[in-house]
Every structure is written in C-alpha cells, then in structure tokens.
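User: quick one - fold this with manganese (II) ion bound?
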Amino acid sequence: MEANVKRVASVLIAPAPHMVGDGFRVHNFFPSGYKLKMSPFFLLDYNSKINFSARKKPRGVGVHPHRGFETITIAYHGAVAHHDSAGNSGIIHPGDVQWMTAASGILHKEYHEEAFSVKGGDFQMVQLWINLPARHKMSPPKYQDIKQANIQKHYLQNNGGVIEVIAGEYQDLKGFASTFSPLHLFNARLNKGGKAVFTFPSNFNTGFVIIEGGIRINDEEVAGVDQFVHFSNEGSEIKIEALENSIILVLSGEPINEPIAQYGPFLMNNSEEIQQAISDYNQGKFGYLEE
Ligand code: MN
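Assistant: Sure. Structure tokens for the protein plus manganese (II) ion:
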C-alpha cells in the first residue's frame, strides 16, 4: 500500500430506518446512527429506495424551522417540492440538487411533488446538513436550485462513467454550488468496470454513500448498495472501480473546528445561541409560511 493512499476506516451498513414526517423513510448514518468525524457534514439522512403507493395528498414534512446550517437534498428517484419563508420554492427531480442555506433562520416544508405523489413509484434521496462556520451562522438565508443540466460533468476515460461536480472541484472542474467552507460533493456515476481516482487533503473528512451498485476501493475493500464508507484522516488518494453500474455520493470537507450546540433543527456554537434561536422562532422572527 502506497503511503499516500487514503484508506477505508470502515464500511458501515445502513442503521434501521425511521420516518421523517410521512414522506421520508431515512437511515441516519450520522450523527445518531454512527459517531463519525465528518465535520463540516453534521447529519446524513439516507432515504434508501422505497416504493410509495399512489396518493392524491402528497406525503412529506410540514412547516418547520432551521438555523445555523445548510440542508442539501439530492434526488435519485422520485421528486420533492420545497417552499420556504424567504419566498423560495423549487422541485427537484432525479439528478437535481437543492441547496438551502438556512443560516440566520428560515421556515420550510418538504413534500413529494404532486405529479409524483399521484402516480406513486420509487423514491430515493439523500439529505445532508452542512454546518456553517460561526461567522456565517447569522448570514441571510439563500437558496441554490441546482438542475442536472447545470451540474459540471467530468467524463471518465474508457467509457468509465461521469463525475458530476455538485460543489468543490474535481480535476480543475468547479462545481455549481457556492459553499461557506472548503468541501467537495460529487455524484460519481460509474459503468461496470469504470475507474476513478479522487484526491483530497488528508485532514478532510471523507465518506461515500453507495446509492446503487458496488465498488472496489483502493484494490482491497468492497462496498455495496446502501452502505457508507468512512475514510481515515491519513493520505489523500482514493481509487475506485465499479463492480457493476454504480452511483456513489462522494463527500469530503475541511473540518470546522468550533464548538457545536444542537437542539432539534438549530445548530449553533453554544447554549445561549440555542436559547436565542428558540426565542426568535417563538417570536415569529423566522418569517411566515403557509402550511
Ligand atoms: Mn428541513
């Protein structure tokens, strides 16, 4: 094994799922499911593929607040509609990404998109919570609607597949999304036999979600669908080879080395700021959004 290889620390199975509202059946890989060093990524909810029956009234999660971080939703099957108190709304379909910066505070609701709900079908999504550095926690809210057509694509050699750069960069190709701290977020869509190499600074916290298929990593470990691969903080280079047609969500970011205080949908640096968030929310300072 070469010295510069970023080795697999563990390959983790999906924890038992729970429902978020009635529209998302998620496995929480962290921070509840496993205690992993993944900052700036604070939470990873993985809605593994599930078939929802047809229903006129869309399933989902009603109006709720967030402060102090960003929620990123990545769609693989099905469609989700979003509305927030800053006046932003959008629908994400497979291949699309919604990047919502709650920052100083927002109310939003997340439901299955109407046409999808009426038809029913397969549903598979990831929601990430990305922490914000203290100096950006009270920035104005922001919304980045990232359609598949706007996502930068690096095509691999020998028809190996494509690396979609959502944020950060892959081999000088810069992603569409703006971020508040250095991080990379890719969808690697590999054809069977396809190979890719990723290089991240050794201190960047790094993981893969295997959305579809299976891969060999660094010529030694194997990971399959619905598993999370956690990497060590030594070395930089990760080599993968697809054992079948595969989709891998790749996340890597520079840790935010600041204290964390969390209470439900608020993610701040200390308990005073949490109390302030609760007080501001109760006083209606997060705006208004119709149920
Ligand atoms: Mn939410």
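One thing worth noting: The CA atoms of residues 210 and 226 lie 5 Å apart.
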